[in-house]
Amino acid sequence: MSTITSQQQSWDTRKLKRSLRVVQFRKEVVAFALVAPLAIFILLVFVMPVASMISRSVQNPEVIDALPKTTSALRHWGGKSPVPDDAYRALVLDVESNGGNNDAGTAAGRLNGRKDGFRSLFYKTASALPFGDNDAAISAQEMKKRLIEIDPRWGDSSYWRAIASESSRYTSQYLLATIDYRESSDGRIVPVDNGASAYRSVFMRTFAISGFVTLAALLLGYPLAYWISVLPARKANLVMILVLLPFWTSILVRISAWIVILQGEGLVNKALMALHVISTPLPLLFNRTGVLIAMTHILLPFMILPLYSVMKSVPASYTKAAISLGSHPFGAFWKVYVPQTLPGVGAGGLLVFITALGYYITPALLGGAGDQMVSYYIAYFTNVALNWGMACALGAVLLLVTLILFALYRKIVGTEIKVV
């Protein structure tokens, strides 16, 4: 009897476990079904574009797609020995097959970056071909002779080394260019020539502008957020509406308003001249000053909101207790209140800085030639130069900087939490 009872209990236990697993599985399916649309949306609009951008920053398909036979013939050529005769034949066949399409033009532009004069050489050769009705029957030596007759530069091995250097579908050229480096003909990574590029200074300018805007937003936003946090609820809500009001206005409208305010005959200059502070209008537009003022104004709410949310949760009794124990009001504020708001300072600073890194419209409309940030060059390579590799490389570097800043913020905040 006891054996039957034990078996019954064991069967009931297994049945109960199966039922619990079924219930748990159903809950997981429901949870996945609820999360799946958001996960798919993030995958489609964020993960896949970012992955595509990163992969495109190291891809180099232009030359190898336009000159497949030539790059194949030069793939095992070391660059020291004479150019293989088969490469001349391959070049003629490649140019004849696609010398006039867009891919060939893009390839010529890429090769011109490796060797000056390649674009004109390529188009001169394309216009002189074909040699005859059956160029495939002409010997490689004869092809070489005729190409050099078209332009003696084909006898210069440096032009062929330029093609050989682009014979791979993947390259580090774009990423190296973002820090003003390049790969030399012998495979070494060396700095670019003076005046050839300035991306390092562009990145430094971008970080400097973003850092200044973040600091200015903190200095303006901290006292304002503190004032809002100590107001009665009704007045605080009214002030927060005023803080959020710019979000309901187009950024182009706000920039246009700053153009009106900062111009030579604008409100600022007229007010200063009326007060006899200045005798001539200040140059506040189309320079760094206008960019900093407008960006600080536009990004100020991104600093106020995190600060206000943290300050609202800090009990006022802590500061009052410190004052009652003999601390100076400013000392109590600095040593008791401010440390508790540091998470808001970090979150607001990170949000403003990262947002400022990618700003394009404000510097483009209010700044001069020396005030453009990395986003301007990304737009240039995307829309004007059509150099997607360089645009993606610049975007990848900005993404890397953003991830590093976020990781540092998480580490600092985590350390502070552990200490407290």
Automatic annotation (TrEMBL):
PROSITE patterns: ABC_TM1 (PS50928). It comes from the Bacteria. It holds the Pfam family BPD_transp_1. Residues 203-409 form the ABC transmembrane type-1 domain. It is a multi-pass membrane protein. Gene3D superfamilies: MetI-like. One of its GO terms (cellular component) is plasma membrane. Keywords: Cell membrane, Membrane, Transmembrane, Transmembrane helix, Transport. The chain crosses the membrane at residues 29-51, 207-228, 240-260, 292-310, 345-366, 386-409. It is found in: Cell membrane. InterPro entries: MetI-like, MetI-like_sf. One of its GO terms (biological process) is transmembrane transport. Belongs to the binding-protein-dependent transport system permease family. CysTW subfamily. This is ABC transmembrane type-1 domain-containing protein.
